[in-house]
# Entry
Amino acid sequence: MKILRPFSLIIALLPFVSAQIVRADAAADAQIAKGKSLYQNCIACHQPTGLGVPTVFPPLAGSEVVNGNEEHLIRIVLHGLSGKVTVNKVIYNGNMPAFGQGLGFNWTDEKVAAVLTYVRQAWTNKSGPITKDQVTAIRTKSDRKKAWTATELEAIK
Ligand code: HEC
# Structure
């Protein structure tokens, strides 16, 4: 009986733990669904495949930026990106518009988080979610109004 006791505790807790997991999954699914519809605003440039247009619009699928440093990624969508950037060994030199609150598309932090969570798990990407709080933290760190350059982002680390 002594051996069985921790086991029965696990059994007793199982419905509770699994209900929590189901709830968390449902919240994540809702964020991804929202992000997928917001991605319509990125499609003209980055394409439905996420592959972009070589040398003009960089890919999001398999991109080391999308799947890399979360702060850099959040800053790019909040404030935009311009000047030379290398993605998957191809050089781009264009202008990515700003989507953040008070700028270009004037999106809430929640929308920025949702679209980024979507692109980080779409196509071949397998990176974790971005939360609204992460976006808020970066946005309120400075009153940045202009697009970043890749060199500036690298200096932030
Ligand atoms: C009008 C075209 C356009 C739209 C719309 C656009 N982008 Fe971009 N995006 C670009 C360009 C051009 C670059 C490269 C900028 C440069 O060369 O400095 C870029 C770069 C990026 C990068 C960094 C490089 C990479 O490929 O990983 C990310 C991430 C990104 N965009 C995400 C998005 C997301 C998410 C959306 C929608 C919310 C979006 N973009 C909407 C044109 C666009």
Notes: The chain is about 50% helix and 10% strand. Helices lie at 4-38, 43-46, 70-79, 109-121, 132-139, 150-156. The two ends are 55 Å apart (CA to CA). The beta strands are 81-87, 90-96.
